[in-house]
Structures are given as structure tokens and as C-alpha cells.
Design goal:
The chain is α+β, with helices and mostly antiparallel strands. It contains 14 helices and 19 strands. The strands form four sheets. An eight-stranded mixed β-sheet has the order 7-11-12-19-18-17-14-13, sandwiched between helices. Bound molecules: 4-amino-1,4-dioxobutan-2-aminium adenosine-5'-monophosphate (4AD) and magnesium ion.
Length: 437
């Protein structure tokens, strides 16, 4: 009998074949068993009729525990009521390995328990659908950037210095070289890459020792970071809106089934097309203060600085599309940000806030390309200059304006899937209180 996967059943209508998978669930009437069989590519119902297979096989299959590995042979038939459009008329079921009593029942469990069982929970419908969307997002990221002439330049994970502030660094001892750190961002290396290849990106895990337990923070998350030589803030703002729109439309096109399983209302996603609304930081503050004043009782005015999560939510809920907030005060942003020549207290930077309250999914902007100004910023931020000599070389040898951004994969997936917490958008989340499994 030929082996096939559930995803390709439509090619075998009317034929007999064998599936290799696991028993997801079973209903039995005593005379007919409905087996939900999953094989990673999908779930299909296999129907086992007592009269057809005989007493011995029927009772044997009835005793197979949930999540045992099995092979099922049967004929493929179209069935309009089935999710995939097909079911299997089973003629034979073989046990590969019987499962012990499975810890995850099909009814609801708490997320804490499920996260402890994450290695098994991946098999369940919703996590499975979420991670399929994630894989599609990753493919879209690569297709978009590869298709536009960006060269993949992998950034190192072990680094000698901070990129995004010293408070969220994971340190480790690095032989005789002293302290090393897990990378917070590949950006500085992408700046070197852009001077060598023009348009580059890196895509990999990044690390932040975040001591916050919010629904948006992981200690290990994946970020894609394009960087463009001769690029400006305007260039990367256009790139960001096209990039995000491409990713969302690609998922809508290719992962319909998964979005349905996740009960995601796709109408808001269909509207994600350029241009996105743009808002200067100063205008954003005005809006926040109006909103605060209108509360009952009124909330005191915004104190300045970076926006907190509730402020981001206020701003993003006003729009159907992601909102691009640009030109934050230079004092609240990273050392590498370029000053706006038209407003020296502002940085040429942009944060993209996703709709529906997910918060910032992109941070980026134009980089300081002047050697003396950059040296000043490194000193102001009390960063060890020796560790940045290579980075300063990029300004010593043919400095040009350049810009880029970082898109967080888990927050993007959370937004697209309508998932409350980013921990469900990565296969094995790492958070302040989670390192297992
Ligand atoms: O705004 P961030 O910190 O920007 C940078 O790291 C720049 N160096 C990127 C660049 O310009 N090349 O982070 C970028 C994005 C955020 O918008 C967010 O989506 C995600 O990375 N992110 C996190 N995601 C999950 N957990 C965390 N702790 C995150 N921190 C940032
Ligand atoms: Mg940011």
C-alpha cells in the first residue's frame, strides 16, 4: 500500500493507502469508531465499521490509547463535512507504539500546565496552527528580502558588547577574553555588512535579560534585521510598511485553515496594505494627553520618555493599520541613533505599533554616521569604547548615511494569529520564569 500524508489526500480520491501518524481522538458507538488521526500535516477522520473489519480488529483498535502511534490503511473518500474535505474508510489499523496515559486531555487546561508540557502540547490543534503560521511568516520574510536583493549576512550570537542598553544583557565568561554577551541585536554587524554588500539582513535569535513578565516579552526571541547603505529614515519607513503588508497578505493567502482553527477574524488583516498612518512622537504625546485628560477620573499627563504598553495600545487602537511613530527624543533611544538635523533633540527613528493592542513590532531608523558624534554618544552612554572600535571603523573608512530596522517575529505572529501572549508564538519559549522544557 502506498504511504501518503493527510495534506495530500485529495490526490488519492477513491484509492487505498496507508497513513502513518498518531491517534488524536476517538468516538465510538459500539459499532462504528471515528478515529481522529493526525500525522503532522493535518488531521483526518478514519471510520472503522465493526461489520467490515470484524470483532477482533474492532476491539483491538478500541483499546488503543490517545496519542499512540499507529498506521491506518483505508480508502480515501470525499466528505463535504470533513475539515480537509476527505475521510478514510479504514480497513486496517496497526499499533506502532502504545502511549502511556496522555497528560493533555482535549478539554481546557491552564496555560501554566500546558507550558510545562510544551513538548507534547505542540501536537494540539491551536499550538500546531500557530507554529505553522510562524513558519509561513519566516518564509515570507526570506522571500521578501531575498526577492529585493538583500544579502543574508548572519550576525554572531556571542558578542563583546551591548547594542540595546546594558540592563538587559546576558553575560558569560569567555575564556581568557573576559566577559562575552548573548546578542541583543545583530544590527551593528549589519552596518558592517551594509558597507560591504549594500543591502543586507540577518535573521536569528536575540536575547534580552528582561525582568518583566508581560505578554510581549521573551528573553529569547527571533528578529529579522535589514540594513541599507545610503538608506534614510524615509527609506526604511517605506520598506517597513511594504514588508509587513507582504507578510500579512502571504499568511492570509497560504494559511487560511490555520487562521480558521485559531478563530482569527481575518477582516482586519485584509486591510493591511501600504500606506500606514504616520505620527511624530510629539503628535503622539498630544494624543495621549488628550486621551488621558478625557478619562474619568483624568490620568495625569504623559511624563515624557519612551511609551509604556498602555500608551502604545491607546495609539494603535486609533488605527486599523499599524501606526508608525517617528522621531522620539534622542535621550530615550539607543546610542547609535542619528540626530534629526531639523530638530537636534529628536532621533531619526521609527517604532511600528501593531493594531489590536499588540504593541511595537518594529524598531529602527537612521544610524549616526559621523565619527565624532558617535564617539560622544558612546561616552554619554558609558559604553566601553574599546569594544566598539571596529564599529567606529565603519565611520572612519567611507562612512555613508544608512538605516535599518528590526522586526520581532513572535510579536508579529501574535498579532497575525490574534494570540494574547508571545510565549505561544515560539516553539519553546524562554522567559524570566521558564527555561523548561
Ligand atoms: O526595538 P528593538 O530593541 O530594536 C533593536 O534591537 C534594533 N537594534 C533593531 C534594528 O534597528 N536593527 O527591537 C526590535 C523589535 C521590537 O520592535 C520587538 O518586535 C522585538 O524586536 N522585541 C522583542 N520581542 C519579544 N521579546 C522581547 N523582549 C523583545 N524585545 C524586542
Ligand atoms: Mg524598540
Amino acid at each position: 500500500m502506498p504511504f501518503a500524508t493527510i495534506a495530500e489526500l485529495s490526490k488519492y480520491d477513491g484509492q487505498t493507502l496507508t497513513l502513518r501518524g498518531w491517534l488524536y481522538n476517538r468516538r465510538s458507538s459500539g459499532k462504528i469508531q471515528f478515529l481522529q488521526v493526525r500525522d503532522g500535516s493535518g488531521i483526518v477522520q478514519a471510520v472503522l465499521v465493526l461489520k467490515e473489519v470484524g470483532e477482533e480488529m474492532f476491539r483491538r483498535v478500541e483499546a488503543i490509547p490517545q496519542e499512540s502511534s499507529i498506521t491506518v490503511t483505508g480508502s480515501v473518500r470525499a466528505d463535504a463535512r470533513s475539515p480537509g474535505g476527505y475521510e478514510l474508510g479504514a480497513s486496517d489499523v496497526q499499533l506502532v507504539a502504545a502511549a502511556q496515559p496522555y497528560p493533555i486531555a482535549l478539554q481546557a487546561h491552564g496555560v501554566g500546565f500546558l507550558m510545562e508540557q510544551r513538548h507534547l502540547w505542540l501536537r494540539s490543534r491551536k499550538p500546531h496552527a500557530t507554529l505553522r503560521v510562524r513558519a509561513e511568516v519566516v518564509r515570507a520574510v526570506r522571500d521578501f528580502l531575498d526577492g529585493r536583493g538583500f544579502v543574508l549576512v548572519d550576525a554572531p550570537i556571542l558578542t563583546p558588547a551591548a547594542c540595546e542598553g546594558t540592563t538587559t544583557l546576558f553575560g558569560l565568561d569567555y575564556f581568557d577574553e573576559g566577559k562575552a554577551f548573548l546578542s541583543q541585536s545583530g544590527q551593528l554587524y549589519m552596518e558592517a555588512g551594509a558597507m560591504a554588500f549594500g543591502k543586507v539582513y540577518c535573521f536569528g535569535p536575540t536575547f534580552r535579560a528582561e525582568k518583566s513578565k508581560t505578554r510581549r516579552h521573551l528573553t529569547e526571541f527571533w528578529m529579522v534585521e535589514p540594513e541599507i547603505a545610503y538608506g534614510t529614515l524615509d527609506d526604511v519607513m517605506s520598506l517597513a510598511e511594504e514588508f509587513i503588508s507582504f507578510i500579512v497578505q502571504r499568511v492570509l493567502e497560504r494559511r487560511k485553515e490555520e487562521l480558521k482553527i485559531l478563530e482569527r477574524d481575518t477582516k482586519p488583516l485584509e486591510k493591511i496594505q501600504p500606506p500606514f498612518p504616520k505620527l511624530s512622537y510629539d503628535d503622539a504625546v498630544k494624543i495621549l494627553n488628550e486621551t488621558r485628560a478625557a478619562q474619568n477620573p483624568p490620568i495625569p499627563p504623559f511624563g515624557g520618555g519612551d511609551f509604556g504598553a498602555p500608551d502604545e495600545t491607546t495609539l494603535s487602537l486609533r488605527h486599523e493599520k499599524p501606526v508608525m511613530v517617528h522621531r522620539y527624543p534622542i535621550s530615550v533611544k539607543a546610542f547609535y541613533m542619528k540626530r534629526d538635523p531639523a530638530a537636534p533633540d529628536k532621533a531619526l527613528c521609527v517604532d511600528v505599533l501593531a493594531p489590536e493592542g499588540v504593541g511595537e513590532i518594529i524598531g529602527g531608523g537612521q544610524r549616526e554616521d559621523d565619527l565624532a558624534l558617535l564617539e560622544g554618544r558612546i561616552a554619554e552612554h558609558q559604553l566601553p569604547k574599546e569594544a566598539f572600535e571596529w564599529y567606529l571603523d565603519l565611520r572612519r573608512y567611507g562612512s555613508v548615511p544608512h538605516a535599518g530596522f528590526g522586526l520581532g517575529i513572535e510579536r508579529t505572529v501574535a498579532w497575525i494569529c490574534g494570540t494574547e501572549h508571545v510565549r505561544e508564538c515560539i516553539p519553546f519559549p524562554r522567559m524570566m520564569y521558564r527555561i523548561y522544557p
